[in-house]
Write a structure and sequence with these properties.
Number of helices: 23
Radius of gyration: 33 Å
Largest sheet: 4 strands, antiparallel
Strand content: 5-15%
Number of strands: 14
Helix content: 55-70%
Oligomer: single chain
Strand order of the largest sheet: 2-11-1-14
Shape: elongated
Structural class: alpha+beta
Amino acid sequence: MMCKLALRNVKRMAKDYVVYFMTMAVVTALMFSFNTLLFSKDVQNLFQMDAMMSVMTGLATAFIVPIIAWLINYMVRFVLEKRSREFGIYLLVGVKKKEIARLYFTENLLLGAGAFLVGMGLGLLFQQILLSIFYSMVQLDYKLHLEWNRNCILMTAACYLGCYLLALFRSRKKFRKMNIHDLMESQRQNEEIKETHEKAKRWFLPLSVLFLVVFGVFLFCFKAWDTGVVIAFLIGLVLTIYLFYTGIAAWIACYVRKKGAAIYRGDALFLLRQFSSKIRTLRFTMGTLTALFTLAILGSSVAFMFNHFQNEVLVSKFPFDVQVYSSNAKDDFKQEIALLKQETTIKEIFTYKVYENETNQVNAYLYTHLKEFGTKYLNTDGTPDWKKINKNEELAYCNYDTYMGLSDYNRLRTMIGLSEVQLKEEQYAIHIKDRVLNQIGDFSGQINIQGTDGKLSFAGYHTEGFSQNGHNGGDYIIIVPDAALAQMHPYYAELVADIKGKAPVDLENRLDHLEEDPDKISVQGHAMTEAASDDWDGEAIGNSCSGSDTIVTYTAKNLVRDNLIPEVKYMLSSLMFPLFYIGLVFLCVALTVLSVQQLSDSVKYKFRYRVLSQIGYSRREIRRMIFKQLAGYYLCPACVALAISGLVCVYTGGKFDFYTGVRAAPATYFLISSVLFFGIYLVYFIITYIGFCRNVEDQG
């Protein structure tokens, strides 16, 4: 009998709480598909930094599991309260408390098992979609095939089952302490509305809004952000989120008491009272949902930032098919050329030198004016600290300014499809990163470049992508007529190559191994002789650098574009995918709580709407009223979350664009995330609205 009753109740729960069932299935599918990235042997074998994806996905799972546990615990207790009268009747007719507890435990396990099985089936679809997107992002081909990794299945099941059992045992313990009276009166406890000190509480609303305004002003105007200030604002934001709902409920109550003019317009009084009572009884839950919405939007916005960066900047950062650095300015790159000829079909190959003339003008100006370095290279009076500049601990730039001859520069430009540059004998130009130039502006008047016949005049800046993270200078390189090189010294050597088709997947590694153990590398059947050591860290000679990039950096002695771009995209994907993962789960969890609350209360509201129908409201008017009620309940936490996340996203987006050189409006990432957010939001709202109307209009 109890088994039949459990099965009947499970069917009813799946129908009444379809949003909860759907969300648990989707969460299971997301967990399974993302765990595939954690355990897939194919993904792990793609790159040397395979552990990064595993670590980041593992961290994301660690963030998500407590939220899933909170959702399950919330739903188990919520359903217990909603069915408390039913369980009280069971006790009255003689059913033992232990049997009722076992029945409830079984029902929830069956519901959870059903959602898990549906989720695993859906997870196979999500898995293929996720892997297809991942392989496409790292520029690799993917053939559809199912991955049934035992560890992936076990981890998904363990996380899911652990959250469920923990929630059920907590509720079972609470259930055993309740008596018939508590069970019969449990539902009424949430219906009690106590309005005390409302005039004082209503001030929480303007104070919350004021704090957000102050937070926005400080965020964009205050410069000295330290740990204490950050912690203070985080505490303030948490308090603002939770106190906002206390304030808005009190403000509505006071407004109704004063009989404000708006309450007599249409159905405003009914809706205001409904909204106020709901916010008051669920203000902590609403605050938690707002926090989840905020984190979801922030996570997806940061993911879109990195996605925009990899699509826009990566190709321009590495314009050459192959590029090799050597700190030995006399290096002829015989080993590298032999290896390239053996492994690839070369269209064009070119070796050249970068020069210096023992001056440090541009380096000093950048060290003292770029925000990345702050005041580290400045004296207290604002003048350059030449001792620190010459010591050059940062290694963003070489020990001396870097120069290139015009003929070499034009040869490199033609190799990457750029037009040649014309310079007169008394002129010079600067090729510099667009990000750096936008930050510091024109500084040509602050430097003095000498040629064979005196000072050279400035002929302009060039900002195309030119491999300026340690190869063609760090951030910049000064272009001078070839004649001016006669009075300079070769600083280091470079090789660039243009090859046909795609490079072999291990070409960059093989170039790296030439330096590690040249005697063991055989090229074209001959053992290579030991070459001069190329010192990338620059401690010996100081002629290597990395540039001033801060958020996403990649410096290496050997660059093979077809190898490194997928690797960098893999690194960025290791950040983006977990952020999307966290954002989607947080969003679905929060929306589930919103939907279930309204669908469960629809039975209680059924009587109220029936009364409205009896006094003359049409079905269309009642549905419009339901729409307004749900819209207010749904939009309130969404708007607060959008206000907070919008401020943070616009500020963060501006900083991201500033330091990476991405050209996009700072609000772009927030707007894209908001569209995704409201797309999922709308799905849950429509499901809730349809279910609510069906429950209210049900004549049973």
